[in-house]
Amino acid sequence: MSNFGTINTATSPHNPNKSYEVVQPPTDSISSLSFSPKANYLVATSWDNHVRCWEIHSTGASMPKAAITHDQPVLCSTWKDDGTVVFSAGCDKQVKMWPLLSGGQPVTVGVHDAPIKEIAWIAELNLLVTGGWDKTLKYWDTRQQNPAFVHPLPERCYALSVRHPLMVVGTADRNVIIFNLQNPQTEFKRVMSPLKYQTRCVAAFPDKAGFLVGSIEGRVGVHHIEDAQQSKNFTFKCHRDGNDIYSVNSLNFHPIHQTFATAGSDGAFNFWDKDSKQRLKAMARSNQPIPCSTFNNDGSLYAYAVSYDWSKGAENHNPATAKHHILLHVPLESEIKGKPRVTTGGRK
């Protein structure tokens, strides 16, 4: 990682960790971030109706590459596994396919009856999956106009994570629906979230044995799927400051070390190791929430947005002074590599 040169030396209230700043960020709240699986191209979606892409250079510099617009705020994005195409969706209820690398124009490849909150590409099935506030999960073959199939959900989709063959869907009313994508039309299991309050994010384990779930109550649940492993389940508090409790907005596993990051409305991001039940690193808090975050394909970059997330309502938002930032943190190995669990006594 030495080729990144020197980290920014100037701190500011939105960037106390001296991260690299992405140039020309969105002009309204940032709803999702996703890196290409093949190269350092970063896509952001925003409430300003835009999907933007930057090329991130090894020096930490960013260069705007291209942008498209939706008719309404965009809530989610994902890449095709070959890194050529970006999919996006949001409040206009449309799924757009953008052949970014070839310079092509976006086309609509799917629709819902309500805003679309989540989107993921399933490479093994060559299908796109979308989760909407119309209480449906839809699978799309992008060569066809109609969905390949539709699965009803018990409530509005709030969160979704795919690690084939595992897919985890979090909805309103704390439902968590687990799918085995070898049989995607049938639910494998349905459980209640181990957390007492509204689900904000989920992340399937890299080993597909379970998932993380984060809630508005500053807590994360570590949950295993098989009944025989339920004794390994636990929850822990995070993104809290005294009596102030903040939402956990984003959960991302590191692609190499399989540790994970949490980011929250307190403006902080932290790195954790679930296997040793340790926090590896707590970063300084920004002056605004972190609504979304992601690692790049080799884990050498952690991108996070700093922008208002509306958790404190309109009265705490001033459009005239509101700023929106995308920052790039270069994780040190000491921050993201798991540590052996400390055991007491002579036996393990």
Q: What's the count of strands?
A: 30
Q: Average pLDDT, to the nearest integer?
A: 93
The biggest beta sheet is recorded as: 4 strands, antiparallel
Helix % is under 10%
Strand content: over 45%
Q: State the end-to-end distance.
A: 35 Å
Radius of gyration: 19 Å
Query: Quick one: overall form?
Result: globular
Total DSSP helices: 1
Coarse structural class: mainly beta
Uncertain regions spanning at least 5 consecutive residues: 1-7
Strand order of the largest sheet: 1-30-29-28
Question: What are the defining features of this structure?
Answer:
single chain; four-stranded antiparallel beta sheet; 1% helix; globular
TL;DR of this structure?
This protein is an all-beta fold and 348 residues long. Helices cover 1% and strands 45% of the residues. The chain is built from one helix and 30 strands.
Any chance you could write out the topology, listing elements then pairs?
Elements: E1 20-21, E2 30-35, E3 41-46, E4 50-56, E5 62-69, E6 74-79, E7 86-90, E8 94-98, E9 107-111, E10 116-122, E11 127-132, E12 136-140, E13 149-152, E14 157-163, E15 166-171, E16 175-180, E17 187-192, E18 199-204, E19 210-215, E20 219-224, E21 234-237, E22 240-241, E23 244-245, E24 248-253, E25 260-264, E26 269-273, E27 278-282, E28 293-295, E29 302-306, E30 325-329, H1 333-336
Antiparallel strand pairs: 1-30, 2-3, 3-4, 4-5, 6-7, 7-8, 8-9, 10-11, 11-12, 12-13, 14-15, 15-16, 16-17, 18-19, 19-20, 20-21, 22-23, 24-25, 25-26, 26-27, 28-29, 29-30
